[in-house]
């Protein structure tokens, strides 16, 4: 069975060992121990990849934990429905943020045009 040291995973995913230990502390990863050394299995590596992907997509650690729990208890139908709900929520939030950004960009463009116009008017006087 393929195993990994914490430093191997940290290097592969370009994160700190402290981050990996944090995910272990909050119950998202469950490495075995060989004395004081953490031994990560393929399952831990996959979970770490999913944690990082979830965080990049805006999932909270609580949401990631909930999805893992559904997966662990073999509730794939429930897990997929929950995942769809979370995705819908994230998309709605991002859409609102995008709308807000577009409003601000438009206001900045108007302010910029006024500044250029004022500069042009002052050059002719």
Q: Largest sheet, order of strands side by side?
A: 1-3-2
Which fold name fills CATH's third level, the topology of the largest domain? Multidrug-efflux Transporter Regulator, Chain: A, Domain 2
Percent strand equals 5-15%
- Indicate the mean pLDDT: 90
- The tally of strands reads 3
Can I get a quick summary?
The chain is mainly alpha-helical. It has helices at residues 6-13, 17-25, 42-56, 61-72, 76-123, and strands at 3-4, 32-34, 37-41.
What does this structure look like?
- The longest helix has 48 residues.
- The protein folds into two domains: 60 residues, Multidrug-efflux Transporter Regulator, Chain: A, Domain 2, CATH 1.10.1660.10; 51 residues.
- 74% of the residues lie in helices and 8% in strands.
- The mean pLDDT is 90.
- The chain has five helices and three strands.
- A hairpin with a 2-residue loop joins strand 2 and strand 3.
- It has a three-stranded antiparallel sheet with strand order 1-3-2.
- Helix 1 crosses helix 2.
- With 125 residues, the protein is mainly alpha-helical.
Features:
125 residues; Multidrug-efflux Transporter Regulator, Chain: A, Domain 2; elongated; 8% strand; 3 strands; 2 domains; mainly alpha
């Amino acid at each position: 069975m393929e195993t990994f040291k914490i430093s191997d995973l940290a290097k592969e995913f370009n994160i700190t060992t402290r981050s990996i230990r944090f995910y272990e502390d909050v119950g998202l990863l469950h490495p075995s121990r060989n004395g004081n050394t953490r031994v990560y299995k393929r399952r831990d590596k996959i979970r770490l990849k999913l944690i990082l992907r979830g965080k990049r997509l805006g999932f909270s650690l609580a949401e990631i934990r909930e999805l893992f729990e559904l997966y662990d208890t073999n509730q794939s139908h429930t897990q997929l429905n929950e995942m769809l709900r979370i995705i819908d929520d994230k998309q709605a939030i991002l859409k609102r943020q995008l709308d807000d950004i577009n409003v601000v960009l438009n206001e900045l463009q108007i302010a910029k045009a006024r500044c250029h116009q004022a500069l042009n008017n002052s050059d002719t006087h």
